[in-house]
């Protein structure tokens, strides 16, 4: 069994939508359930390198929609374990190389479906091996590489932190043992990615970007340094930058003078939540924007109203709604 | 995330014709067969040119397939190692050709292969400018050139990267992969040549801003270059003051052109941050930066920005800027607090009216300012 992160069928046209929109919960559930039945589409095969990501996004969306069991657990476990490498890393699909992003998604999936016993059966001391794989990717300057080929990015650092944290291998979770990663070098790197506008870029010197604000704040939050590092002044500055991401359409963009996109509903909103400034944007308008980006007939959410839906925008739209407190959704932890 | 989830090939519309469906099935079969062949060849350590060509074919169809990029690097590493270990004597013409470029024959082979692969990436990069893996592979090729070739030769390759990245940024002037790669390329050229490019790069940001005022990526890069620029110019306090004035003039002109552009206000905010020692991410332009200087700029900018209201009374950024400037002014000099506070209250009321999206933020500001 596997599951596609493929495109939706989206044939919604803007202007045909009713003014009063509701989240089409059942349609989103069946949209996600049906993703794996689309092997007759070329796109299904061309997106195989995203498969584990797709499962994680789909499963998270289902959890938030209150239907955590909507995908068969056995199939999920079998699939995720089939992506495991001897070095403790996971690939995006069976046979694909191990990468920190897919290792992170796999650990998240196993956490959500409580699959660590099966993991242990497949590979004894697997948690330790996964943690060692993640730790091996840290560079002397504190950054994390995605894999042995050495590309670094704050996304990978955040991925390393949450993976180790879920596995219980962050140094603060084992105060009496030698740390397996250098947390202060990592957070020093994150701090070097901060800009004058209060937000964060992908590397020191890079322009601020909402996605990187999320990964950097998330990493600092896991390390327990977010509040002390930013302080009220820093939170005001970052909060101002984040709140300016909302445009008159209600949607959020990722950087100044860029287009709005549903996925920023999560990155901007969760960052605002982490710094206690969620009320700095208009939640009703954002809700309307996300709902307008749904495909009300086939399910799924797109980047913008009228576009083709996909599972990536579906989960970030739903997670954004959950943070806003949309009725009927399970509450989500911003970090 | 790797692909941002936006499908490049629009697949399943429900009302596909029988013919289209058949065609798609055929495409899937061909794609899966090609994938299978590449994977099997690499697993059986068939590091031949045929395998290499097959990865090219597969990556052209699907540049997001990161494992295949990894395979491609394995294949290249293998060829490079073989070239370096080559025992037999190369032909005279190869030796001569290599000597002409200041290389050994194996180095020349490696250099040709790297150049060829860089060429292979160009059309892919143009078609998929946001694909992390393509940028990443390029960066790996250049890094490998630095490791395996003499500095003069690898330097040439890095130099021509500057042309490529400028081309990419002219196609999409906000592509953050492009800007990040540009910083990487510049840093490496500077390292290899032991000379600074900061003046040239500063000039590049001016050019990009003139082409499109709204390009915050260029404004941001400019802000990053300024501290080094001034230090390399060995600018004294007078030169620094003149520089600061010129930047304020530049941004003020731009703001008059379009006060509704957020990018411009952020750069204005950056210039003001350089006067605020509490913002460690914006090192001072002025040296020394005294309170008298701060007040001078704050007064000047409050007047300038007030003037912008004329004809743009509905522009929220103006009120935001006035509030920030005044708040800062009161931090530095609490003298005429009453007058300033009254004005600030009026701006805040206006702001709440014209910027209802952020009404929660303005309410918090009101509490903070203790009106």
TrEMBL record, chain A:
Entry's Gene Ontology BP terms: protein localization to membrane
Cofactor names: Zn(2+)
Entry superkingdom: Eukaryota
Underlying gene: BET2
Biological role stated in the UniProt entry: Catalyzes the transfer of a geranylgeranyl moiety from geranylgeranyl diphosphate to both cysteines of proteins with the C-terminal sequence -XXCC, -XCXC and -CCXX.
Assembly, per entry: Heterodimer of an alpha and a beta subunit.
Domain Prenyltransferase alpha-alpha toroid stretches: 24-334
GO cellular component: Rab-protein geranylgeranyltransferase complex
SUPFAM superfamilies, A to Z: Terpenoid cyclases/Protein prenyltransferases (SSF48239)
CDD domains documented for this protein: GGTase-II
Pfam families: Prenyltrans
Catalytic activity: geranylgeranyl diphosphate + L-cysteinyl-[protein] = S-geranylgeranyl-L-cysteinyl-[protein] + diphosphate
Coiled-coil blocks: none
Name assigned to this protein: Geranylgeranyl transferase type-2 subunit beta
EC number: 2.5.1.60
From TrEMBL, chain B:
Record GO biological process: prenylation
GO CC annotations on file: Rab-protein geranylgeranyltransferase complex
Listed Basic and acidic residues bias regions: 15-26
Reactions listed under catalytic activity: geranylgeranyl diphosphate + L-cysteinyl-[protein] = S-geranylgeranyl-L-cysteinyl-[protein] + diphosphate
Gene3D superfamilies (UniProt xref): Protein prenylyltransferase
Residue numbers spanned by region Disordered: 1-26
Family listed: Belongs to the protein prenyltransferase subunit alpha family.
Name of this protein: Geranylgeranyl transferase type-2 subunit alpha
Origin species: Recurvomyces mirabilis
């Amino acid at each position: 069994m596997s599951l596609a992160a493929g495109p939706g069928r989206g044939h919604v046209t803007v202007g045909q939508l009713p003014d009063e929109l509701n989240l089409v919960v059942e349609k989103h559930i069946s949209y996600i359930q049906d993703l794996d039945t689309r092997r007759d589409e070329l796109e299904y095969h061309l997106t195989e390198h995203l498969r584990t990501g797709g499962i994680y996004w789909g499963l998270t969306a289902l959890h938030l929609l209150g239907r955590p069991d909507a995908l068969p657990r056995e199939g999920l476990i079998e699939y995720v374990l089939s992506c495991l490498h001897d070095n403790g890393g996971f690939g995006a699909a069976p046979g694909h190389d191990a990468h920190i992003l897919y290792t992170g998604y796999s650990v998240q999936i196993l956490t959500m479906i409580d699959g660590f016993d099966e993991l242990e059966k497949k590979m004894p001391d697997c948690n330790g091996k996964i943690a060692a794989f993640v730790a091996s990717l840290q560079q002397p300057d504190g950054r994390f590489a995605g894999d042995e080929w050495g590309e670094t990015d704050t996304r990978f650092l955040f991925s390393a932190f949450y993976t180790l944290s879920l596995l219980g291998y962050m140094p603060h979770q084992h105060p009496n043992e030698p740390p397996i990663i250098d947390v202060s070098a990592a957070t020093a790197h994150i701090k070097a990615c901060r800009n004058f506008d209060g937000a964060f870029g992908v590397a020191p010197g890079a322009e601020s970007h909402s996605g990187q604000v999320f990964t950097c704040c998330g990493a600092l939050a896991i390390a327990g340094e977010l509040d002390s590092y930013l302080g009220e002044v820093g939170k005001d500055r970052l909060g101002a930058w984040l709140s300016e991401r909302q445009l008159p359409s209600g949607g959020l963009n990722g950087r100044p003078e860029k287009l709005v996109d549903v996925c920023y509903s999560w990155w901007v909103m969760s960052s605002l939540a982490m710094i206690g400034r969620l009320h700095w944007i208009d939640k009703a308008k954002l809700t309307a924007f996300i709902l307008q980006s749904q495909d009300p007939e086939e399910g799924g959410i797109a980047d913008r109203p009228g576009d083709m839906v996909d599972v990536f925008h579906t989960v970030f739209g739903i997670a954004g709604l959950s943070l806003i407190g949309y009725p009927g959704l399970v509450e989500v932890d911003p970090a | 995330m790797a692909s941002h989830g936006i499908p490049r090939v629009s697949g399943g519309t429900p009302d596909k014709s029988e013919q289209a469906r058949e065609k798609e099935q055929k495409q899937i079969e061909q794609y899966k067969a090609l994938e299978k062949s590449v994977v099997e060849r690499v697993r059986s350590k068939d590091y031949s040119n045929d395998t290499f060509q097959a990865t090219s074919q597969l990556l052209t169809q699907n540049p997001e397939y990161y494992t295949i990029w990894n395979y491609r690097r394995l294949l290249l590493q293998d060829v490079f190692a073989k070239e370096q270990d080559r025992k037999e004597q190369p032909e005279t013409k190869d030796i001569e050709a290599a000597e002409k470029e200041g290389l050994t024959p194996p180095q020349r082979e490696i250099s040709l292969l790297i150049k060829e692969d860089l060429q292979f990436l160009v059309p892919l990069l143009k078609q998929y400018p946001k694909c992390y893996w393509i940028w990443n592979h390029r960066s790996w090729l250049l890094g490998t050139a630095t490791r395996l070739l003499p500095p003069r030769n690898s330097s040439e390759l890095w130099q021509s990267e500057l042309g490529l990245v400028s081309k990419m940024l002219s196609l999409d002037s906000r592509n953050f992969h492009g800007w990040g790669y540009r910083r990487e390329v510049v840093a490496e050229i500077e390292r290899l040549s032991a000379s600074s490019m900061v003046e040239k790069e500063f000039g590049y940001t001016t050019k990009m801003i003139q082409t499109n005022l709204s390009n915050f990526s260029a404004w941001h890069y400019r802000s990053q270059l300024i501290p080094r620029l001034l230090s390399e110019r060995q600018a004294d306090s007078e030169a620094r003051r003149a520089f600061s004035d010129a930047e304020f003039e530049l941004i003020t002109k731009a703001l008059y052109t379009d006060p509704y552009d957020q990018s411009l206000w952020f750069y204005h905010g950056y210039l003001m941050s350089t006067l605020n020692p509490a913002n460690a991410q914006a090192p001072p332009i002025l040296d020394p930066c005294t309170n008298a200087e701060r007040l001078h700029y704050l007064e000047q900018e409050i007047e300038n920005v007030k003037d912008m209201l004329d004809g743009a009374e509905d522009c929220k950024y103006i009120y935001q800027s006035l509030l920030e400037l005044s708040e800062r002014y009161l931090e530095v000099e609490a003298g005429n607090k009453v007058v300033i506070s009254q004005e600030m209250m009026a701006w805040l009321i206006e702001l709440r009216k014209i910027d209802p999206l952020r009404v929660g933020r303005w309410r918090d500001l009101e509490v903070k300012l203790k009106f």
